[in-house]
Structure prediction request, 266 residues.
Amino acid sequence: MYKFRYHKAQSVDEAKKLLTESNEGKILAGGQTLIPTMKQRLASPEILIDIGNIKEIQNIDKKNDSIIIGAGSKHSSVADSNVVISHIPALAELAENIGDPHVRHMGTIGGSISNNDPTADYPAACLGLGATIKTVDREISADNFFTGLFETCLNEDEIVIEVGFPIPKKSCYMKFPNPASRYAMAGVFIAVFNSSVKVAVTGASENGVFRWTKMEDVLSSNFTVSEAENVKLSPEGVMSDIHGDSDYRANLVNVMAKRAVEKLNG
Prediction:
């Protein structure tokens, strides 16, 4: 690694101040992506601002018709939360199947969505549930938050502090994981609300997580397995690598969507 300074922030305000004042500062939450990246010398921040001990961003609560999860909440905390399990069980199940126990006890929801890995799970939940991401400066809809491969609309000195997930009537996340990394080779999150159905896909597109609007339209009219089977994701624009080509991944998305509808229909 390169030389860098390390500071353990005691509050969000302190972290924001340090980040604003630094030229090449980085926020350290769980460190599951940043630390390996620094080890490979692909990132060289002058200062790491550790927000891991800030309790004010580790809350998990129900507020009105939403579940509010602090950005510093570990994946394991989301998976074990009675609040999440009671109201959005699919979100708890998603968190329970991220990586391995080490990753789940270190990684945070805020770090995951801020990094926006194209194969990560939480971005699909954010889009599928129509989440609102709150930062130190503003509130951002999930549809506007994720802007491309490893890209978000966050400014350089902006810090995510919480994510609000509207509670659906029912929801499901189906993932085909890479057997080594446990990242999604194809993941589909489907959420049913009173007047709409949202479908989000991760692990497939060359541009990262996306809303599958064609599937949404079909399922909003007729929420059946047969209708889901009639919608096929085009392999155009789908990732192709050593783990699977675009045709294979597109088919995986189709299969995961069908399984999600099957599960939601009981």
Observations:
- The mean pLDDT is 95.
- The domain at 5-50 is CATH 3.30.43.10 (Uridine Diphospho-n-acetylenolpyruvylglucosamine Reductase; domain 2).
